[in-house]
From TrEMBL:
Low complexity bias: start-end ranges: 40-53
Protein name (database record): Xanthine dehydrogenase YagT iron-sulfur-binding subunit
Superkingdom: Bacteria
Keyword flag Cell cycle: no
Species this chain originates from: Nannocystis exedens
């Protein structure tokens, strides 16, 4: 390179590298940032009781009866129902909220019990498949399922029934169509493919056209 430039290529690169190094070593003038919420360490608010790490009492209504059970904060409603209260009609299939087999009604709305913490239903009304029959007699919906052969292996049946029962309760007195039933069971996976029979059963139970 010509001396006319007054600087060599090596000197240029050396200067750039030194400047970058010094810039990286300069202390930051900005205050450190943090994502921590000051309220995170404050603990429970007024009137709130901390749960855990051990079991804590949980009171709710199950199929019309008041229940109180000691449940750890990390236990799901599905586990509490099956393992502690021995209501085994609610099935464990995917355990990931993907199949709907564990569906129960919480205050009348279908919910995946495998994705619901037990303590989240404190004070709520929970209905499982065991709560559909009354006085030893199957419900109208259960009878319709049998009449229309809306079940095969049975793994999905209890959850399917609860989603359909939730639909019937929400639309009582209204006329249902196939689209209403299909939307209600969209989260329930039936590996046997009995969906058309399920739709027919629900429409029958609702007094509509099957």
């Amino acid at each position: 390179m010509s001396d006319r430039a007054g600087i060599t290529r090596r000197g240029l690169f050396r200067g750039i590298g030194t400047a970058g190094l010094l810039a990286g070593c300069k202390p930051s003038e900005r205050p450190p940032t943090t994502t921590e919420d000051p309220g995170d360490a404050a603990g429970p608010g007024p009137g709130e009781a901390a749960l855990g790490p051990g079991p804590a009492p949980l009171t709710f209504t199950l199929n019309g009866e008041a229940k109180t059970v000691e449940v750890a904060p990390n236990i799901t409603l599905l586990a509490a129902l099956r393992e502690q209260l021995r209501f085994t009609g609610t099935k464990v299939v995917c355990d990931r909220g993907a199949c709907g087999a564990c569906t129960v009604l919480i205050d009348g709305l279908p919910r995946n019990s495998c994705m619901t913490l037990a303590h989240d239903v404190a004070g709520a009304a929970v209905t499982t498949v065991e709560g559909l029959a009354a006085g030893g007699k199957l419900s109208v919906l259960q009878q319709a399922f049998i009449r229309h052969d809306a079940l095969q292996c049975g793994f999905c049946t209890s959850g399917m029934l609860m989603s359909c029962q939730g639909l019937l309760e929400r639309t009582r007195g209204q006329k249902l169509g196939r689209e209403d039933v299909e939307a209600a069971i969209a989260g329930n996976l039936c590996r046997c493919g009995t969906y058309p029979n399920v739709v027919a059963a629900v429409l029958d139970a609702a007094g509509g056209s099957a």
